[in-house]
Structure to design on (1356 residues):
């Protein structure tokens, strides 16, 4: 049937965030973690500063997409989104300053300009910035085709680019509303329990069906990290990645298999620092509709397991970083008072 | 090196167009063309009206993405873009009305609301609309996963969704400026000859690296059509499509091979009506940078042929629809006076 | 290190069996089973006789590779191997007649000449034949390339050709020795429990790493069937098959995943009659060594699960056809006299 | 229709050759060639002796499959086939000694036992052996799965195993008869010109559709080499190989595309020494029929080009190694006496 004209009743979307820029991962085993990302995932080191090593996939256009920081425990340091324009950045900062969750401006980070940081309701540190440094490949890494950021490494898993990150949260609904209202993210899919509790959310600011996700932390520990995901071109490349993880003694938690939610073809492993890392197919699935209606998954539907019937393993709901015992006193935990 | 702050000097982008919605293809052999799209490409018929049959890929969220219209010749009837909001539609119409290229509002099309039509400088009919009818799969076509528009057909090539269209144009530069200024498209790649003449342009309004392209018509005939492209998930599926085209006696013009421009993995065939159709991998290549700097290809670079060395065949620059001899008097040609 | 010369001490291999020719599957739901094999797996009906329908994959060179027979229960009717020459057939028959397991000659089967039937130690009916009818594609099924048996159907899963079958057996060792001594099959991999009991065997008469396998029936019921496997070209095609099974409501038992044994990329489903059917990648793995040394898997190694860590599900050791309750006195249990 | 019984009239096949074991490639640029095979193709060095470096793909079960020998020109040193048994080796040697083409026994080669050498009618040196050294992976190259020869390298193109070689010959028919009569190879496909001249032959001793091929040398120079082929698992991997060759500045002669003959999905490049190297999908296409009837391709059929319409390039019929100017008196031309 035909929709009724809706001119005037539709609120225009906020389009100020362009994309996920990078994720800072904390690791208690910096050397082993670095070797994993460079030798096994096939990433390229593109900078060092203090306790951090900066890494990139061959198709990331910015200088880096992963900041690997030596720390006493594992987890998410922060996640950073690039604003669409200088004005868009100012608009979002103005909104966040009125949210009571702002932390303030952060200067002098390698590779990008002034960034404004805040904490989401669960305590994860989120930052937004506009100015950025485009990666300029040194001679040895120059690609054959000028429309590519860096030559294809042909080493290990050859991850292409950062795709999304997944955080754990105690209160999914509170976080969804925060990201919708203050940053303009759109919800594409979610899990809602029979009692109405929201248990998972997938949000986007691009045509990708999600740029980040939050799922419920069954341990009720705030500020934890579930995983970061790097994109590969095809499902076959994820299968090959599994072969390579096996050869390299990397722990495969689950997969390769296809999620019912978002239909992502996934493979989860643990990097040496204990953080979960996913490789997934960026695939052809895009959300082009500007008025996409969120897909709501029920408990009954989730009980069916993944798309092809694989049961979701228990650790998927409990393994987060940092480990619960080490969570208190972390950057994330310090958020508590603010919540 | 670090970029200088640019706050204030950057003009904010126009983000009013959401995506390419559908393409109307004219065919002098409606029955054969329909069989090609349904039996060989694996598309689904989702409507009929007058001389037109409406078709869709299994992942198109709107009712259709291809309007196949019986006509005395081949070519492009029109290309339609969906606006991001009712307000966005009004803004673009206001701009177009001041452009001298507006045609006016068009009502009563199957599957979408009021559309405003205009002609680009080369005479192609372009329309924009907002209200649309989401495809509701009948029982037999209902998918197993609720986040999918329609069940996977498992028939023929199984094209996923409309990806882009490519028009031929006499004056590329004039068209680029029109789409940038009045519709807010961004140029991602272009071909510029040694004398400064623009010979090809690839433009986007999404995170896809292009939603449409125009290349120079070596016959200098205005308003012609080069091809429409449907997306498949992987390069392997394009290879399988080639096997299927071969088995079905479909003429393969060139490919499968990889374009240097946009790195698209392509395969071009002619449908029975004479129009060129491409299947390509939607792939993982996205343009996420809001300030992407257009890639400029030179004559020397183009002479190298495609990415892996295949020479670009002559017909690629001359075969367009309608045939030159039939071009005069077509919808497209009627644009002439208006130009 | 260099091997010692072994001239004269090596017994020459028996090379009389060329390949697995076809499998007869019994089904209590002949119509539903037929629809599964034709519409979902993409096979082609190539004959009917009595209670049987004959089916083929597009790359099977003989008239058929699957004989689907209506029966009161499910299971394996018989498995047939083609001899390498008329003389080879005579030699094997002479050997079998001395084995005490011979049943006798069987004439008049559709598509092939005289076949000699016998029972393996577990009671499965095995037959060998030489004369065969090559498939001659009718006009509508004629391929574009003359070195292909039949055009690619582009329907459903598009299985390529019969790859192997897997039987359940109470005494694996006795069956291994029978197939080695009387038919000349070579063992490529096996599972041997800590107490020395053989629990699984994979045997070949070609360069494929196995043409059939037997695994231990945990219910200790003789003559049961585990699965038949059809080959696809790549792992990606098995993933697509999973999508198609999901869309068609076919029960997926386990997979897609990679076996440690033989490294087969597998996907198991149940056809409507209850028989397990596998689609797997024929892949590039070949056993070229004429003196291949069998790979022996221990209990500890099997406990690790499949290649990438997936646990082997319980039903894989217990679900066989016919169901245990229906096994006694089934066609499979003592078919020959009745046929 | 049903074939007539043929018992007694069929000559039993000779099954004494098990498979192609290795190829010796001559190169005037040994260091650059070695870097190509190790860094770009992803092969592993497994020995050195005199002017030769021995290389292997990760799935080759013998110590090596390529002997790369420094020489004043390029070309084929020799091709070696492994016999099926010691007795089979003796039978073939006895036959060759009666052929007038025998050279004699060759001892002391790295990795295998006594080999008997001969020249085919075109002058290529062919050797057969039985005793061989199985590759034993050092700790660093040990695979995770015990049924694999070596761990997957995850470097460059990752070629799996030697697949076949292709020689150029002046008189194809004479060579076909030689390989059929004295070594027992079976012809699976061939090209026969309108005047009856044989222009190409594809022969096998396994279930692969060919283990070597000879095509007519349009320069009428004897003993030249066309290419050696390494297998990859899927067509997608050949496409990725093309990306990697492009990044590494390797000259791509033609492909990726699909041959009509044998349906091989091919990609041809030149290694630094000038020899043509192919990577192709080992794929699922097997010749299982023991009485396969050779496919004969006519001039008219060949004029259609490759499977999907790509025209066969001229250099494919003329570029061989060594270059014609260097062919007379090369190692390849009269190697034996000197070795």
């Amino acid at each position: 049937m035909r929709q009724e004209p809706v001119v005037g009743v539709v609120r225009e979307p906020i389009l100020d965030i362009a994309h996920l820029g990078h994720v800072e991962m904390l690791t208690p085993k910096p050397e082993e973690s670095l070797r994993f990302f460079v030798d096994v995932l096939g990433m390229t080191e593109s900078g060092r500063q203090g306790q951090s090593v900066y890494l990139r996939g061959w198709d990331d256009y910015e200088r880096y997409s992963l900041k690997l920081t030596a720390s006493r425990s594992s987890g998410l340091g922060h996640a950073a989104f690039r604003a669409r324009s200088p004005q868009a950045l100012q608009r979002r900062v103005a909104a966040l300053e009125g949210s009571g969750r702002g932390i303030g401006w952060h200067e002098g980070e390698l590779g990008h300009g002034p960034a404004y940081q805040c904490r989401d309701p669960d305590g994860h540190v989120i930052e937004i910035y506009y100015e950025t440094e485009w990666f300029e490949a040194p001679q040895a890494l120059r690609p054959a085709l000028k429309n590519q950021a860096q030559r294809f490494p042909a080493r290990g898993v050859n991850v292409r680019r950062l795709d999304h990150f997944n955080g754990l949260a105690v209160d999914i609904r509170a976080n969804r509303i925060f990201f919708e209202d203050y940053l303009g993210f759109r919800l594409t899919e979610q899990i809602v329990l029979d009692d109405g509790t929201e248990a998972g959310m997938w949000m986007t600011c691009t045509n990708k069906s999600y740029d980040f996700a939050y799922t419920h932390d069954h341990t009720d520990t705030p500020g934890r990290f579930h995983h970061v995901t790097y994109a590969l071109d095809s499902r076959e490349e994820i299968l090959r990645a599994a072969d390579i993880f096996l050869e390299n003694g990397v722990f495969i938690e689950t997969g390769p298999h296809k999620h019912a939610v978002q239909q992502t073809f996934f493979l989860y492993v643990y990097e040496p620092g204990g953080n979960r890392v996913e490789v997934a197919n960026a695939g052809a699935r895009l959300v082009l509709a500007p008025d996409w209606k969120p897909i709501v998954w029920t408990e009954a539907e989730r009980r069916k397991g993944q798309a092809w019937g694989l049961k979701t393993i228990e650790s998927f709901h409990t393994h987060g970083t940092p480990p619960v015992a080490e969570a208190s006193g972390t950057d994330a935990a310090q958020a508590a008072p603010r919540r």
In short: Chain D touches chain A through 16 residues (CB under 8 Å). The two ends of chain D are 55 Å apart (CA to CA).
